[in-house]
Structure formats: structure tokens, C-alpha cells
Amino acid sequence: MSVERAHQARTQRVQGLLAVLRHIHAHPGVTRAELSRALALRSSSATELTARLKALRLVAESGVAPTGGRGRPSPALVAHQSGPLVCAIDISHERWRVAAVQLGGAIVDHRAGRHQRRAADTVLGTVREQVAALHRQHGSRLRAVSVAVAATIRGDRVVQASNLRWQAVSLDALRPTPSTPLLVGNDASLAGVAESRRGAAVGTPVVLHLTIEVGVGGVLVVDGRAMTGATGAGGEFGHMPFGDRSRQCLCGAHGCWDLEVDGRAMARILGRAAPRDPRTAANRVLAAAAADPAARRAVDLVTEAFGRGVAALVNALDPDVVTLSGLAVGLAATAPAALHQSYRNGLMRFRRPQPPPLVPSTLGTDGTLIGAAELAFDTVLTDHGLDAWSSASAQASPVSR
């Protein structure tokens, strides 16, 4: 066989392994028969490819999946107990979370805590210790680190985290080894990826994800990929000038949408001081809205401001569906009429008969970690990632070669 033909054969074999591995990652528990149908593989090809992946300690066959018909039930294809892991990190305004996640998206180890101080060196020092502990425990199984931050991101750096008061912060110290891939994304953007791949919008081609925590975050997701622009800083929907131009945002701009739709806006409408914890303050106002007319008015005004902005984004981005998380879910549940009226009124006329539905998140607060893990596995489930794991697997267990 010529060198060129040998190279082509190897490339086809690797692409076949990756196709199977990615399908098992997206559909843990799939059977070989289901895999064959989904990827248009012959039964013998599916058997050969899964055997190779088992030998590499990437997948295992566990239990049996009922077929609903006659014949012996088929084993389910799942992550190998000694297979690759990724480290997913979530750094929000108030807390941090660190998790080890296996193929298929299951969290196998989880640590969490609240910030003692918000200074970047303090927060990152704490998180770095947790990553190092995971690396000591799992060693070379830990294949990548992915960080979700409540911040504006460019590449693998935090450009600005207004509520954490961070500016131009490198996250490189979170690598457990110099060669470990490090991925960084905005928290709301990664939550949107998670809803598209594993949550409320699975199978939907174009998804607009919006969340309210301290201000509004979100992302447009197309075919499971976040559209974050040329440098990764896209999706800062909360900093569009949909608000009062006399108000300056912590980001430096005036009139940001952020300032109209969270607990800070509710407090301002109620004549109260700006809350230290806008999310908790907003939830208290939501809880009071049923019995307190002033609280109800504050919720309605904030919800209307949110609905108008959603309509503007739908007009501009043309999604199939809009997924909501965080405080946005509470607004939709407490003031559904205000939300849908302001949303519909803001839509272009041709969109009103069948507007993109507003759908609550199914992943909730776990969406950010799940999205970070998905970003990491996008790096692991590649030609290079498979080669690197194959080499590590061979060194750890020569018999499996």
C-alpha cells in the first residue's frame, strides 16, 4: 500500500472512531443497533469501531437497553470508568464551582464554594487549588480545563468582569500542567451551548439563549456552536443601549439594558438603595408581587423592559426558539402577560403570527458547568485529542494496544 493510501485509510479510520465517539457522547446509553442506524453503519462496522474504542478505554458496554421487541437486549454504550475526563469550572459573581466530567456529560466529582474576596488573585488561587486536587486524583485522565466566567472574554482571557471588578485577567494559572488545553467562555454563552446540546433546545438549529443574573447575558447558538464573534467577546446583549441614556453602567457605557431588567432596576423602581446581591433582592420582590401592588408594578416594568429587548434580538437574529434561564424564568412565571405583550409588540409584524417560543431552561444553574464541559470535549474529541489519548492509553496499558 502506498504512503498516500495508507494515510487516507488511517484518516478514514480515525474519522469513523470520532463519529462514533461523538455520537456516544451526545447520546450516552445508545445501543450498537441505534448507533448503526444513526450513522448509517453496517453492523460489522459498528462492532469493529466500538471494539477499538473499548480497547482504548474510551467507551464500555454497560447493562442492557430494552429493545421493545424479540431477541436478546443490546448492551448500552457508555463512558469507560477509566476514560478521559475534563475539568469544568464556573466562576460567577458570588461563588465558584469545579467539576470533573466524563464522556456523555455526567459529573463524577464536584466541589463548590463562595468567594471570600472577589479579588482575581484570591478567587483564582482558590480555584487553582481545586483543579490541582482533581489532577492529583485523576492524573492523565484529565484532558482539558474549561472555564465559564461571568465576564467579557477574548480568547482565553477575561477582558472585563464588571461585577467582580476584574480587568485584563489571565486564567493561564488554572492549567494543571503547561500542556493541558485551557478553554475560556462567558458563562451565559456556555449555558446557551448546554441548552442547545443537552437541554431545552436539543435538535433546534438556531437558538437564542438569554439569562438574567446581574444584568442580561446570552448567546446565539447555531447547530450547537456559540456565535461569539471575531475575538470571543460577542453575546454581551446586556450592554446594548436599550435603557435610560442618563445611567452609566459598570462596563463604561451609558443606557445599558442590564440596568433595566434585574434586581437593581426593581430596587430603583421601589425607591430602595441598590442591593448588594441583585439576584436575591429580585427574588424577594418576585415573591412579594402576588400581595404587594408596588412589588407587582416593579416586576411588570422590569418584565416589559426585558420583553422589548427580547423582541429586538429576535428581529435581528431570527432564532427558532428563545431559551430563558436565571431570573428570566421567574419573570416569565410571575408576569407572563406583561412579558408576552411586550415581546409581541416589539416584533416585526410578519413574525407575530408564529413568534419564536420563549422556553424555560431545563438545566438551570448546572447549564454553565455543562456548557463548559461541552467546550472542553470539543477539544478532546478531535484527531489530535484522540491521538493524545491513544498514546496515553498505550503507555498506561500496553496490552490494550
Can you offer a commentary on this structure?
- This protein has 401 residues and is α/β, with parallel strands linked by helices.
- It has three domains: 3-79, Orthogonal Bundle (Arc Repressor Mutant, subunit A); 85-190 and 366-400, ATPase, nucleotide binding domain (Nucleotidyltransferase, domain 5, 2-Layer Sandwich); 203-361, 2-Layer Sandwich (Nucleotidyltransferase, domain 5), CATH 3.30.420.40.
- Helices cover 41% and strands 23% of the residues.
- It has a five-stranded mixed β-sheet with strand order 6-5-4-7-11, with helices on both faces.
- A hairpin with an 8-residue loop joins strand 2 (59-65) and strand 3 (74-79).
- The chain is globular, with a radius of gyration of 23 Å.
- The two termini are 22 Å apart.
- The mean pLDDT is 89.
